[in-house]
## 1
Amino acid sequence: MYKKEITIYDIAAALNVSAATVSRALKDHPAISKKTRGKIREKALEMGYQTNALASSLRTSKSYTLGVIVPRLNSNFMSTVLAGMEKAASDAGYHLIIMQSFESEIKEKENAQLLFSHRVDGLMVSTTSTSPEPAHFKPFFAKNIPVVFFDRIPQKYNQYNCVTIDNREAAWQATRHLLDTGKTRVLHITGNTGIQVYKQRLEGYKAALSEANKPFDHQMVWETGLSVEDGEISAKRIMTMKPLPDAIFVANDTCAITIMHHLQKNGIKIPEQIEITGFNNDPFSEFSKPSLTTINYPGEEMGIKTVNLIIDKLNTKHIEPKGKQIVLKFGLLIRESTNQAAK
Amino acid sequence: MYKKEITIYDIAAALNVSAATVSRALKDHPAISKKTRGKIREKALEMGYQTNALASSLRTSKSYTLGVIVPRLNSNFMSTVLAGMEKAASDAGYHLIIMQSFESEIKEKENAQLLFSHRVDGLMVSTTSTSPEPAHFKPFFAKNIPVVFFDRIPQKYNQYNCVTIDNREAAWQATRHLLDTGKTRVLHITGNTGIQVYKQRLEGYKAALSEANKPFDHQMVWETGLSVEDGEISAKRIMTMKPLPDAIFVANDTCAITIMHHLQKNGIKIPEQIEITGFNNDPFSEFSKPSLTTINYPGEEMGIKTVNLIIDKLNTKHIEPKGKQIVLKFGLLIRESTNQAAK
DNA sequence: TTGTATGCGTTATCAG
DNA sequence: CTGATAACGCATACAA
């Protein structure tokens, strides 16, 4: 019933050569004569031979596969990163095994183990862990398998391979921009500050306040999940504040736009009464009314750079064991949701 | 310099048992006594053993890996589908290797071969091919590896495993809704109609026109890439039309919102002068001004159902060789970008 | 230029 | 309950 696999042995038998010759011919090994190479290729095609990458990987201990772990993959930012990764990997002859941790450290750990057991050649992770040094990457380090952290990195792993932007600086600019127009009650809606990116954005927010001699009020920092639902809840909560904040720095666009929408429904004028800045530059941030001031986060570039860093490491593993930190440029995009005035 | 892999032989040696026993113990084979099982587990942990999935797959010819090919993964719709897939796969003990075809049939073919050589247990594809029966899936069929087409399916593959929505009906409803408010010049902006989904949406559009006794004008159907850029170009082109269309049915939200935005910039009132409907129900479609009437396309459900269909097939391969067609429910979401009137 | 022999790490078969 | 052994499909060191 089941068809047996067609192997190099089958085509060797059909051609009265050895399996070794077939193996070499199929890889265009120069030691094999053009003629036999041609014959073998042809026969392989004819017999519908398909190389078994598993066997090959086992033999060579090289899988040409990279593992990716992300918190979730259905955000515009993350899918853009992954698109860049897949492209760069594919161009270099690698494939991606992608897993989601769903913001669970346990799941992240399982994923890491799974990817290890699949003998990925490299690992890329945007961590969900709030541990300073999550232990589940140790096996990779021990075996000298390159690991690159992107976007979200564990707190004590700054000296490892990282591809990030300067979140503190970005948040500082966003907050500073709000303050420059004379605003005084700036609310900051962010994610879990146990996660570095949000912690750093909070620091940037604080720094901007302090620089402008505004007092920091921890009641003006809300940790949420930054989802659409969280935006709705936050908007409701904002409407109960008195006085209302006169500016909001939200740590992602999804949430920012949701909040803006609901505030407007409640009759709030944006940006006259409340200015808003987001983070990420999601495609629709430009098309909201008013368009959203935000931080341009170069997702595709991040994906490409992350993969390229891995591949660099793979090609020079013995030479350069040290971590490399890549910090990408971001941009503050000033749009209508804030008053362009100031400065 | 390099550490040797730790294998079941190492732990067997350390414990004075055979490798076979270790292998069985690690899989909780009931034939092994609780005591030895425990000892082996412990030792494995202590020695930092990590199973080699490659070797295991080679031996068992089961990889617990599913391949996915999509045109691109950085659209809200696709990343939602993939999120659903990854979740469902992970829940069933499978992993995903994801590849992009970038709307190239050649790349799609390469991807299929690659995934085949990686011995995926199943393949899920949203095809980019305009061939009626793309040949590159044949090896999977021949080897009885389940293939499920989702979203976009090749023209002659309706009898294979498919997970879709009724695009014709959806387009019909969208167009019909526009016509119901008395509009007469309905422009249809869509994708490559060599691809089934767009062809079907076009059919739905035509059917609605004909039903309303409106003539079909092929000049009122524009094939584009449906990207933001295409939206900008289309908007410009619309502004040169006289008379202007009084309604537009756009085949995705990204493009619809871009067009809406640019028309508004040119002083067009939406929906008074031009009504617009989109397709997909991207998250921000609700937050545009006016909010966008669109088709709710259940992406996550599609991902989950697709994976579940594959897994069903894997569990009953011999019993049910026939294709199964799953048609998901969609919904027409009427919002402010169209006049709610009519009927 | 080609062939022989062996091993990658695991699992399954067959004995004991 | 446990062990010896072969096999999965490929690639490479060594020989010819």
Note: Chain A touches chain B through 61 residues (CB under 8 Å).
## 2
Amino acid sequence: MAHRPVPQADDGGQQDAVRRRPRLNQAAVLRAGVVLADAVGIDGFTMRTLAQELGVAPMALYKHVANKQELLDGMVDLVWAEVTEPDAARGWKPALRERAVSLRNGLVRHRWAVGLMEAHGRPGLENLKQHNALLGCLRESGFSFRTAVHVTSLLDAYIYGFALQQKTLSFETPEESGQAAAATRDGIPDDAAARYPYLLEVVGELAAEGYDYDVEFETGLDVLLDGIDALRASWRNG
Amino acid sequence: MAHRPVPQADDGGQQDAVRRRPRLNQAAVLRAGVVLADAVGIDGFTMRTLAQELGVAPMALYKHVANKQELLDGMVDLVWAEVTEPDAARGWKPALRERAVSLRNGLVRHRWAVGLMEAHGRPGLENLKQHNALLGCLRESGFSFRTAVHVTSLLDAYIYGFALQQKTLSFETPEESGQAAAATRDGIPDDAAARYPYLLEVVGELAAEGYDYDVEFETGLDVLLDGIDALRASWRNG
DNA sequence: ACCTGAACACCGTTCAAGT
DNA sequence: ACCTGAACACCGTTCAAGT
């Protein structure tokens, strides 16, 4: 191996950890993209701000990603990499439940991702791996091919949709949700209030009792899993 | 009323129907926005292209909407206006089913809408009216307050998520879906193919049999409705 | 009251150039 | 091989004018 001129002591290639600006590479760009998008949201996420965060000229990024769309696709695949794969050995129901909670947690940690998950680009390798594991869990548990497709479609739609609902309602805790509900109620004009009695009832109750997204998600998830269980037999030949 | 100089014969205020460019108003701007977004998608939808479509300078729009976000909020509310309201008199299950299909149809007609439905802005009046009707249908059918919230959350999450999955997969018919699946399969590298056997099985089967979104949606919807039915009693006191 | 034109502060991205 | 600076064709939006 040729000896190269380095201004620092040889540390076995680990010198990047200390250096102010390590040499850029695609993985570093994608990771920084996830961190930035988490911090500022998808609207504030621009090639220029990401470059600034990395201490680099905007055009330097284009040496490592073809364009912004490919950058976003790569970031989405990093989110997929965080999701627990279902393991048929644990039983299909606990395995699917765990995966669903894990996927939702990923979408909550990275709120910008849900709008890009099914984006136009080719699915990433982690996405393929994840769905292969999901389908494998179902097939190995005795689900028919068609049923496995139904279950995948049903569960993922629920998870995506729930994350989408939660993404844009900006409160996190039950207390915050109560305050938000109160604000919404107070924001409704008086004449409208009279026209939407049922809505007002719910908003008022939620303002008093709060709303827990985690509980709500898992309540719905259990309805789905029980529904899948109940109809498993009748779908066997479908 | 002062007599004004008009280059056309007096037609009792109905002259707009014939004129090339009728006087702009907010409703006309919103309607044109929906048509344009349907045609070009949300990426191609800009204030400038909408103004051009209306034969007007870009800044003319700002006399009728405060900014782009408010314009989008108004467009979303026009989509809500297309959704059938559930009628408890028909029985809660058929009523909810019809509303779910109607909402999904609206989201398919206007694919740009799903990403904006739960957007940060204040919900529109049609949105409020729609959710008031949904909650009213459930309460009048004997659902408890808490259960009505669960059901609303569950159903809407599924509908949104399904529309989101469908939005970005660009094929419409079962035949197209088969072709798309074949393309995806052929796009997977050989070594990856060996690593994702279950995924390949599904993609291959779908390429052969096709995939019908309408059937898939209603299959999952019936699982949800049956699950809600089954657990209705146990939720009574929840 | 409604519409326009020029301008500003941003975007993503191309290109030629630097080391 | 990797990074930079200037430039281009776009955005949404402000402002001062026009009628």
Note: The mean pLDDT of chain A is 84.
## 3
Amino acid sequence: MGRQEQSLNPTVATFSCHDCMRRSHNEWNALTSAETAELCQARVPLRHGAGAMVCHQGEPSTGVYCVVSGTVALRKGDDHGHSVLLRLVPAGETFGYSDCFAGQHWSASAETMETTELCFIPRRVMNRLLANNVELSRRFQTHLVRDYNSAKETILQQAWLPVRARLAHLLMRLKDHFGRMEKDGTIHVTPPLTRQDMADLLGTRQETIARTLHAMAKDGVLRVRGRTVILTDLRVLQGEIERDAGAS
Amino acid sequence: MGRQEQSLNPTVATFSCHDCMRRSHNEWNALTSAETAELCQARVPLRHGAGAMVCHQGEPSTGVYCVVSGTVALRKGDDHGHSVLLRLVPAGETFGYSDCFAGQHWSASAETMETTELCFIPRRVMNRLLANNVELSRRFQTHLVRDYNSAKETILQQAWLPVRARLAHLLMRLKDHFGRMEKDGTIHVTPPLTRQDMADLLGTRQETIARTLHAMAKDGVLRVRGRTVILTDLRVLQGEIERDAGAS
DNA sequence: CGACCGTTTGAAGGATATCAAGGTGAGTGG
DNA sequence: CCACTCACCTTGATATCCTTCAAACGGTCG
């Protein structure tokens, strides 16, 4: 369903939670040193190639995952082979807490978009840490609310914005994680996404993504070079978002 | 933006939390008798006419609301006058906890769809109750996860289902709260929704709702009588949802 | 009655999907 | 080293769903 389903067994990797550079920027830095040790001891470090399934929608949720490096996509499907990408999980972020909290099954599948290292934290450990550390609990709850609000925003956009504006919006977000400022001031955005992936993110088709991208290029909004999108002027891109907004 | 903006000041109503029939079926029955007394003393009971604004998107969230009778709709808008109905809140349900948890502004507006009684519970009280009652906290968290999953489901449906199937889906849910089984076995569904409201729920236009509804009537899926939709056979309606599913 | 809100219906146009074909580039095996 | 394959990308032609604009209808409440 994703790309060339690289179903290699994951390699067990070795990296420590104490040293994890990501930790200082995410929920886990609410942990005390002792708690970090407990986490480090209980978590299962993993390494996947690109296009690997980390967990499957519908199967019982047994814990959360923390992305150490690489990118994971959360994909939700229906009974008929259709699916959408709900969001990308960049390095440093944790996913799966909502399904873990509710103690239910995975509401989406997780697949790696590139070579990815991540840690699995079993529910039992998660619950113990949450029970003993109110701050950790509060942070994950906040993150959950943010995810929810973001989903609501998506619903609003899908209802009112045409593909072109949604794509502009997507590029605006992608540049933060996958953009690199060049010497000439342009921003080269190279996300690990196929046209199909972008289509799945925006609720449209791959052909439409290709067409829209090239239409925007013809209008001077950006340049396309293979999987890389070159942004020359963010204000012009922002204008694409505003443009389609004739009040009703 | 809703209906004829009935901006009457809300009347302060008088009903007790102890006697509230709704309480036994929602989160609040996790409270002890003493806690219920505290809630009852601190909450602000309100009564609104139809089409009244309970709270406004963007303004600071100062607490949660519990719907005692009637129906509330949560509407999210953008800067350009567009808006969608995210969900309906039927009697017995509480809303606003996600914004309250995060301590932020209202991510959506709430408007009454009919004459509605509700209670306002200030954040301060909410926080105290949550801090002292883990079960209450757990229940609201579960509810939040359910709302989030429901939003994700909506995104999937908007991406893949045509209006007709989404409408069938909506009717399927509406019948649970607003349907009445008649002697002849048919189900009369009369939700407090205009065509525009339904359109806002499905991310489409009112004309499309009217047309689709009548098209379904012509196909014998249902009957339309003003604002009432008469369902004769739920399996046929279910079939409408399945129909549009040619796997990709 | 007459104004108003909501609903219905028609006609036309547009955005996007669908179907189909060809192109490109990287990896693979002869 | 080249041909082959496979995934991904592009592009064109056409179809369709839905929107938009416009007009008329119906109930309801002053």
Note: Residues 162-163, 204-205, 207-208, 211, 226 of chain A lie near DNA strand C (CB under 10 Å from a C1').
## 4
Amino acid sequence: MASSGAAQISVTEAALLGLLTRGEMSGYDLQRTAERSGGFFWAPAKSRVYAVLPQLVERGFATSREVVQEHRPNKQLYRITPAGRAALQGWLEVPPGVEPERNPLLLKIFLGDLVEPEVLISHVRTLHAEATALKRRLEALEANGAAEPYGELTIKFGLEWAQAVIRWSRSAEKELEARVGQAALR
Amino acid sequence: MASSGAAQISVTEAALLGLLTRGEMSGYDLQRTAERSGGFFWAPAKSRVYAVLPQLVERGFATSREVVQEHRPNKQLYRITPAGRAALQGWLEVPPGVEPERNPLLLKIFLGDLVEPEVLISHVRTLHAEATALKRRLEALEANGAAEPYGELTIKFGLEWAQAVIRWSRSAEKELEARVGQAALR
DNA sequence: ACCACCATGTAACAGGTTACATGATTAA
DNA sequence: TTAATCATGTAACCTGTTACATGGTGGT
């Protein structure tokens, strides 16, 4: 088995190591890269990045070297080690689960009877707008042609997700409006 | 404004208070209810439930009374207070955002070039199976007719989500298989 | 004059998990 | 006799966030 002796790493650690497979980078680079490209599925706070990196070094998953610069602050460049690659590999090979949709939004809908229907409708409309914006952003990314080998698949996933939200919010809006209409007739 | 003086509460607190609007319950009841019905979008560990409940009492959002039982352990029953309702109301009125899909799965796809394509394909198939199972579970729930006023809408959201995953994994599987085929030709 | 970028970090806190601990009742 | 249900909690740990702190460089 590949995972028998493999060290456990967290999602953030996997993400960091994953980016490091693309080349030597500083904490600053990593955080920026994560936030921009692909960043729609993973974006830790920078404080977290700077906290995790030394841990990776300590555990032997990366090495660091200081680069002295003239007109900017010095920086640490991190490089993944074979042990790091192995740990990442192990993580990648664990089958992912369909996350159980732990979504505050769902809770707000579920408890919808506790607020005015208009509030709910406005929530749904906000959601629709946000999903549409996400979709546009992803379409733009897709049009650029992904630099990453599997970037496209990731974007497509995001698009399916956005589309699902759009579909749902359209039908939900209609249904909520119908309920308001019925209430007015009583 | 409704939220001006409203106390901040977390998602878990909102969920607990939300269930308490349905009636007096114990920690045990709450945890079980959350796990079953609707539980596909929210399911904290029981230790968390037992930790949060006394805090709610301390903050004046709920009251508790002990019920002495004969053939079972005694229990605490919690009841939501007007202040609790107000806090919940405030939380419900904050517009929800489209969560940025912080999904480990996405990361695994994104870094797909680091594992054998077969591993990726197997991941995608697992996902497909899980999404299908979720879909079936939700359809069964839907057929039962929801007890909660807005239960149906919640279920529909879950169905759209499941459907999106199914659609994506079907197309992803095809594409990955094609890549493997191409690689074999080289 | 002001803002964004480069670059790293600390401190305080929030929110959550797993594993451990206990122990009677009841249905298969 | 074995397992699930009822019922509550503690301890240790992990992961993550926001806010604070510092300070030069380079463009508008």
Note: Chain A touches chain B through 65 residues (CB under 8 Å).
